[in-house]
Amino acid sequence: MKNPVRVLGSAARRVLVPEWTAVLHDVEVLRSDRDNLLSDIRILRAELADLQQRADGLREESERLRGRVEALDVDIDEGRRLSARVAEVTDLVTEVVLPLHDREIDIVRLRDDDAEPT
Amino acid sequence: MEGEIPVTAPVVLAVRPDVLVIRADPYAGPVDVLLDGRRLFSVRLEDHPAARIPWPEALRPHLRGRGTIALRRPGYDPGAEVTADLGHGGRFTVTDASGRDLVVNKWGRLGRALGDSDPGVTDRLLDHAEEVAAVLERDLGLEPFITGGTLLGAVREGRLLGHDDDVDLGYVSTQDDPSAVAREGFEVGRVLRRAGFSVLRHSAGHLQMHFSHDGVSDHYVDVFAGFIREGHWHQLFCIRHPARRADLLPRTTVTIAGRRMPAPADVELALEANYGPGWRVPDPAFRFETPLATRRRLETWFPGMHVDREDWALRPERDDVSARARRVVALEPGFPALDLGCGAGADTAFLADRLGRAVGLDWNEIALARARTAVVGKNADIRSVNFRDLRAVIRSGARLAAEEHGWVVLVGRLLTVLDEPARDNVLRMLGMVLRRGGLAVVDPGEASPRFGAQALRHGLVVEHAPHWLEVRRAPATVGAA
C-alpha cells in the first residue's frame, strides 16, 4: 500500500510544481550524460597521453632527421668539392703529367712487380 | 590614369658626410644618385626606410670637395640639385688614376660604366666580344651567345646598358657533369690565351678577357660556362632555371647598336632565368639574390679562384725591407730566395742583391706591377701565382723544383689571408721546392695550430727558431709499404 503522505506529497508537487517529474527525469539524463562525458574525458586523456608520446617521438625523429639533413648537406657539398678537385687533377694529369708517350718512359716503374693491380 | 599613384621626383634635403637625407613619394623603387648630373650609384628606397641613404663604402675615400647631388627615378627627370660641400676644398669627383669617371657597380665596388665612357667603347666591346666568340666557335665548336646584362640591354633597349661595364658571353656545354664542364672551362681558358687574349680566371666556369685602349684599361668580356643538368639550365654564376637544351640552342640573333649578335633560342626564358620575371622593368639598383640551392651548387662545383684579389689590391704594401729578409741574408743560406707573397717586391729586390737571385710570387695585381718595377736590373723574377688554383701551384712549384738547387723561402703575409685549400697549396709548393734542400721561414703569427700537422702531410717538418718557424723537407723514410 502506498504511503499516503507520499501520495499526498506527489499530488501537491504536481499541483504546485508541475515540472517536477520532468526535472527529475532531466536530472537522470544529465547524470547519465555526465558519466558519459567523464568516460569520454578519460578516453581523451588516454588519447592525449598517447598523442603526446607520439609527438615526443616525432620531435625526436624530426631532430634526428634535421641532423641527418645537415650531415647530408655537408656530404653533398663535399661531393661537389670533389667534383671540382677531380676536374683540377684530371686537367693537371692530362696537361702536365701526361701524355706519357711524349716523354722518356721509365720502364722500370711499369714492371709487373710494381704494378697495382698486378 | 585611374588608380595610378602619382610619382614625384625624389628630393635631397641634406648631404652629410655619412648619409643623404631625402624625401620621396612614394617611398619605394630604384633611385639613381647623381653627382654633377651623372649617375654615381643606385639604391632601392625600401632598403633605406629612414629616408637616409648611406654613402656606399667604396665612395668613402672620395667624399671630399664640392659637387651637386640629385636623385632620379629610372625613366623620369631628376629632382632638384643641391650643392654639397664635403670639406677639404676642390671638386667632389670619383675617378680612376686616368681621371675617368667611376660608379659604384652592382658588387658595391668602384668601376667604370659604359654610360660614362666615350661613344666608341660600344663598338670596341662588341668587336672584342665577336673575336672571343669566333675563337670559341672555331677552336672548340662551342656556340656562344650573349647573356646577362648584354642580352638584357639588347632585348630591352637595343643597346648596351649605360650602367653596365662589359659584354657577357655564355655557352651551353655538351657535358652535363660539372667536373667535365669545369675541365672544358680550363680548356676554354687555354684556347683563349693561345689566341692572344689577356685572360683572368674567376672560376673553372668563368673567364674574363681584359682589353686596353689608348694605353689604359678600357673594358672586358666575360665568358660563362653553362650546361643542362637535372632538367635545369645552369650558368655561372647565378642561373639555375628549368630549361631544356632546345630552349637555348640553336641560337637566334638580337640587335645591339645595329649589330646582329648571337642569342639563346628563347631570350625571354634566358632573361627570366637571369633576372626574374620583372626583367622588363629597368632597375639600375638590381642586385643578384641567388637562391641558396643555386649558390650551393655553382659555388661548390666551380669555386671562386679570384676571391679577395681586388681587396688585396687596396691594401698598403710595404716599400721597406723587412727585418726577416735581413735575418735570412745573415743566415748565408747559399740558395736563391723565393719570396711567397712578395707584395711590392722590396724584400725580393733586396734578396736578389744579397743572395744573387730571387723569385717573388704574388696574386695582388697592383703589387705585382710594383714588384716588377722594384726588381728591374736585378737577377729576379716576379711571377703571378694564384694559390687557390692547384694547377697554377703545381706548375709553378714544378718549375722552381726543376732547378738544380734548394731555396730559402720567405712566406710573407700569406697564410692568414688564404683559405684552407690555398694554405694547403702553399705547403704543397714548399714540399716541391725544398726537395733539393733549403728552408722556409714562416712568421709564427701566420701559422695555425694545425700548421705542423698539415706540413707533415706534404713531407715537411716544422721547427721553432728564435724569430720564426723553420720548415724543411722531412728526412726520407725507408720501407713504407
UniProtKB/TrEMBL annotation, chain A:
Q: Which residues form a coiled coil?
A: 27-75
For this UniProt record, give its keywords in alphabetical order, as a comma-separated list. Coiled coil
Q: Which domain of life is it from?
A: Bacteria
* Domain DUF6752: start-end pairs: 65-106
The record, for InterPro entries, names: DUF6752
This chain belongs to which protein, by name?
A: DUF6752 domain-containing protein
From TrEMBL, chain B:
InterPro entries documented for this protein: LicD_transferase, Methyltransf_25, SAM-dependent_MTases_sf
What does the UniProt keyword field contain?
A: Methyltransferase, Transferase
Task: Name all Methyltransferase domain ranges.
Answer: 338-438
Q: Which GO terms describe its molecular function?
A: methyltransferase activity
> Any one Gene Ontology biological process term?
methylation
Any one Pfam family here would be Methyltransf_25
- Xref: SUPFAM superfamilies: S-adenosyl-L-methionine-dependent methyltransferases
- Kindly give the CDD domains that the UniProt entry links to this protein: AdoMet_MTases (cd02440)
Q: What is this protein called?
A: Methyltransferase domain-containing protein
